[in-house]
Amino acid sequence: MPLGLHRLNKLRFGGSAASTGRAKAAEPIPAQPLRGSGGSNPRAFAEDLRVESRGAPWIPLAVGGSLSFLVLVLVGAAALIRVDRVVPVAGRLQPQRSTQEIAPPEQGVVRRVLVGEGDTVEEGQVLVVLDTRVLQARQSSLLQQAEDLVRNSRAEVDRVAASLQEERSKLVGDRQQLALTEEQLAQLRPLAEEGGYGQLAVLDTEKSRAQLLARISETQARITRLEAESAQRQAELSAAMAGNSAEQVATDQRLREIVLRAPVEGTILDLEAKTGLLAPATEPLLKLVPTDNLQATVYVPDQDLAFVRPGQDAELEFPAYRRDTYGWLEGTVTTIGTDALPPDQEYQYSRFPVNLALARQYLEADDQRYELQAGMAVVANLRLDKASLMELWFSRFTGGARAVRTIR
What we know:
Blueprint: H1 3-12, H2 14-23, H3 42-52, H4 58-80, E1 82-95, E2 100-102, E3 108-113, E4 120-121, E5 126-130, H5 133-194, H6 199-257, E6 259-261, E7 266-269, E8 278-279, E9 286-290, E10 294-301, E11 313-317, H7 323-326, E12 329-336, E13 351-358, E14 362-365, E15 368-371, E16 377-388, H8 389-405
Antiparallel strand pairs: 1-10, 1-16, 2-9, 3-5, 3-8, 4-7, 5-6, 7-9, 10-13, 11-12, 11-16, 12-13, 14-15
Helix pairs in contact: 5-6
């Protein structure tokens, strides 16, 4: 008897087989045909066998348990993993010192231009040379004017000095004559009183004495006037010489300034100077961007200013360099502007300037450095705080709920 039929018969007639098995253990169980099997019909046997075969229930349980565990892991990760919340603001890289405009001190013709757009120059390097012929002619005129001034003033001073010397000599002679007259008068008066000499001689002597006194007084007045005139002439000469000397110094300075030099080390920008150009006074011929450490100047809208503070960290991205290839830089907020800037063509909103210090002055990728330049666009992701993924997800719904409640 086949083994499969034997087991099926045990299942179908298990009760009687079990009871008789104890009494007649040695007797074989005769084979019984299956109901409806028609003897050895294979199709009927397969149908009976299929009725008895059932799938195991552990597969759905395992799938459901795995999905539940995965959901729990994701929810736990969303609650535990915290990420930075950032505010992206745009701006540009700028040197710490402002761009300097280089302009001639006065109108002149450009003779030579020694630099080009984008050139890097050292401090004191000659940039533009203007035509100096006008100033040189002015300097020669000043020198000639100084010589003429000295010559004319010296002649006038000498004339006054000669007149003064003459008057002083007259004063000395008159004083000596006065002394003799007074001595003579002192001798005549006693004689006239005794009658030994005439009164007329005494009167003539007294008259001479009075004339001498008047002449001495006039001479002294002229001497005083000449001394004052001499002092005035000397003062005028000194003032004129000082003015001429100052103008010469100024002209020398202008001659030196007519050769435009770089006040600091930097890069040439907006070069307008060309040979033969008539350069107006104080109009910039070029701009010089100092080679200082660059800083990022970004513009924060009004609604985000409350979240910005000095010392705050930020991630700086540069549109000129792809972040996934060249990376990004760390930045730190240094200063926050106190006055709002009005909207303009580039930024069509009211904003506050915020300066950030850069951790490095270059980007680095594949062991190569990529230098940053002034004027490059920058996007600063200002880090506000950390929040879990679940908080960020729920914030969308709370924001939507507030939007429904508000009218505007």
